[in-house]
Write a structure and sequence with these properties.
The protein has 10 helices and 8 strands. With 351 residues, it is of the alpha+beta class. Helix 7 packs across helix 9.
Length: 351
């Protein structure tokens, strides 16, 4: 906080940074940081917003539900939804806990893709303002957006081993299996989102690192980084990846400097731990939450920075599964196409 502008930190940032710390009472994962938040400090002595008024008498699910509504309306975006996936325990579809509400009292393995520091790099819902409707139940959240595709194939979850230099067999297997899933599904298809062999290779590298280097910068701003990925592949996978769609294509791009495989490894583990690789029916590849299934829908929700995975419950409602990274959707491409078609948005009620 001492290094933050005006010594103030947004509430969502405080919740994010303290999530994996301990508290005697689960609800204090929220109440303990509330008094430090910028939103409270700027209230000039006024009472808390009713949605975040401390109350130890109501169930924790209601406390975190109201907190989530507050953060959505306060910021005018859906960034907080990225914290509702990637928990230590698998989500129960029949749980009474709203699927779109983060369990701040549980640890989180996977990195959240939506964050204010990444707004310049990820803007999947570009230019379309957040619209919130009236839910049928107190635990519902009604938003608008567009449906992209459904998930057809997916990998095992990448187990986390931290960020050391050692490369584990599970990490090698994860990359190889992910590439084989995409290659096997698309080799006989006439039209895919990534046209050339080089496009496929670069999209795959972007998926493995969520489009960012180990320094948190877009990989397109660091030409050396593609060679780092190729060096990691050559060192740890040998010729197991198709040369015509990976190593050979990248090797043709001479970039001065010595490739550093550890840079790719650090970014890859950070982006993929606790997540699954997937391919949609239209052959979009992506990195999604560990609880995704075949048939889940990839959507863009207005007010969202990244795409999301939803699971349809009935004709009127969906359960929120988590955020995802999908090359070809992160810069608002799907929204631009939707605008050109002049179609009506779809309404999603999350339960």
């Amino acid at each position: 906080m001492s290094s933050a502008p005006e010594k103030q930190v947004p509430l969502l940032d405080l919740l994010r940074e303290s999530r994996n710390r301990e508290s005697s009472k689960p609800v204090d994962k929220f109440y303990a940081v509330l008094g430090l938040a910028r939103e409270v400090d700027s209230a000039d002595g006024e009472r808390y917003d009713p949605l975040i008024e401390p109350n130890y008498e109501i169930p924790i699910a209601e406390v975190f539900r109201d907190l989530t509504r507050f953060l959505i309306t306060q910021y005018g975006n859906l960034h907080v939804l990225s914290h509702a996936s990637g928990g230590d325990s698998a989500r129960d579809d029949h749980s009474s806990w709203p699927s779109w509400v983060p369990k701040w009292h549980e640890g989180k393995v996977s990195r959240d893709y939506a964050h204010r520091d990444l707004e310049a790099f990820y803007h999947a819902g570009t230019g379309e303002p957040l619209t919130i409707g009236i839910p049928r139940t107190p635990n519902g959240l009604v938003v608008q957006g567009i449906e992209i595709d459904s998930i057809q194939s997916f990998s095992e979850r990448l187990t986390s081993y931290g960020f050391g230099n050692q490369v584990h067999q599970e990490e090698r297997d994860f990359v190889l299996h992910a590439w084989n899933i995409f290659h096997n599904q698309t080799r006989h298809q006439q039209t895919v989102p990534y046209v050339s062999s080089r496009d496929k290779a670069l999209a795959f590298i972007a998926t493995m690192t969520a489009g960012l280097s180990n320094k948190g910068l877009p990989i397109d701003m660091d030409p050396q980084y593609k060679m780092d990925a190729d060096r990691w592949s050559s060192k740890h996978l040998g010729n197991k990846l198709s040369a015509s769609t990976w190593s050979e294509q990248l090797a043709r791009r001479f970039v001065p400097g010595k490739p550093d495989a550890s840079r790719f490894h650090e970014a890859f583990v950070c982006a993929c731990r606790g997540r699954r690789f997937f391919v949609t029916k239209k052959s979009y590849m992506g990195m999604g939450p560990q609880t995704l299934r075949g048939g889940d829908n990839v959507v863009i929700m207005f007010g969202g920075q990244v795409p999301y995975v939803l699971r349809q419950v009935d004709n009127n409602s969906h359960r929120f599964v988590g955020d995802c990274y999908v090359p070809g959707l992160m810069q608002g491409e799907a929204v631009d196409e939707w605008r050109q078609k002049k179609e009506l948005p779809k309404t999603f009620e999350l339960v």
